[in-house]
Amino acid sequence: MQNKQIPFHRYIISLICVAVISGGGVYIANNSGVTLASEEEDELQKVHTLYRTLQEDYYQKVDKDTLIEGALKGMTEALNDPYTTYLGKEEAEQLSNSLADSFEGIGATLTLVDNLPEVAQAPVKDSPAEKAGLKVHDKILKVDGKETIGQTLNEVVQSIRGEKGTQVTLTIQRADKTFDVEITRGKIPIASLIAEMDENQPTIGKIQIASFNESTARELQEAIEKLRKEGAQSFIIDLRQNPGGYLSQVEAMASMFLEDGQTIVQFETDDQIVGSSKASSDLDGGFKVTEPVAVLVDGGSASASEIFAAALKESANVPVIGTKTFGKGTVQAVNGFGDQSELKMTVQKWLTPSGEWINEKGLKPTIEVDFPEYAYLPPLPKNETLKKGMTSEDVENLNTFLHVLAYQTEGNTFNDATEQAVKDFQSSNKLKETGEVDAETAVVIELKITDQLRKSDQMYEKAVEVLTKESKQ
């Protein structure tokens, strides 16, 4: 199960979030600096010698900062631990932004379509982007006069972000019009969860948690209080594709669902238990959730998400529903060097309340429910037009998607049936009826598939079934 790709509807969510959130893990807040002791110099004599030799004798001029950065990265890479790494200034800033509860920018989420950044969804309410009139599918051709084509999504995002009060000029293409928009950057809150009542079950509140950032525990308490007022008598906590975040936040959140004294997580170094975290009013402020709860997980639920799910499963007997989780059982601390670069380093293992280390194994759900097979298919190509006569894996995926949408297509060949299905689809969705699948048609097909997956979310439906049965007992 862990070898499967990201479920398609979650791919859409992940793709959109990349402009705001990246990375994952369990992190301990740590502001201490890193220094090199003088007694280590003898051990590093070979490193110093190599550094001087490259500077003095290499046939071209060598940038000293490049050598130093390479040496630092090399030391962390030598540990063969993907979660221990040296972060340069830009990478450190990205990690900090990914765990923050706000950022400074314009409030638009982007994706890449045909190698151009495009507004992926409606701008954040009351954000500079909304006030400037940016709309979904607006293409950003230039940022402050610099062309964006060929840049990575992250490069474009970093150039648009900036300090509150500063200005950025975007060259926008909307349909057949091109124009400049000058936007004054502002502070944009990052909501780490979405809470709403179930459409069909008036007593079930659902909360989707995207990450464990600086304010997620507070957001969770506020969400539960709000849903209670709306009639919620039970809750579904959706942690699918949640990559993790701050340890302090997941401890506070898990504590809300446990009785004081119950174990949330244990910590181990050198195969010795060195500590544990237990539910208490010090963590949750006395706020408790005593209503029935179900937790949703999948192969993208990692680290802090796994701590939360394991704590509720093992200490509170809460049903965990979905597929086996990612399997990241380590804790990282972040230490600054003083020049805005950082060392992200693994400092502990974490174990479930029962003492299990799930690293590279994942947490097994109480009730296993998977996505339909088509949910794991890759997205349709955006840099190639699929047309009649073609035979490929992409065409097979297209035929599968169309079949899911009730069109009579199958196989890996773009035949007459595929062409007619595409024309019918384009007609019903107000697209130009070409019978070919270009980037625009591909995006609309994917959005319809996403809607279909949301309407037939078997994991969520199982959680509703479990809570409904429990309420009748």
Automatic annotation (TrEMBL):
It comes from Candidatus Enterococcus lowellii. Belongs to the peptidase S41A family. This is Carboxyl-terminal processing protease. Coiled coil: none annotated. Pfam families: CtpB_N-like (PF22694), PDZ_6 (PF17820), Peptidase_S41 (PF03572), PG_binding_1 (PF01471). Residues 96-161 form the PDZ domain. NCBIfam families: prc. GO terms for molecular function: peptidase activity.
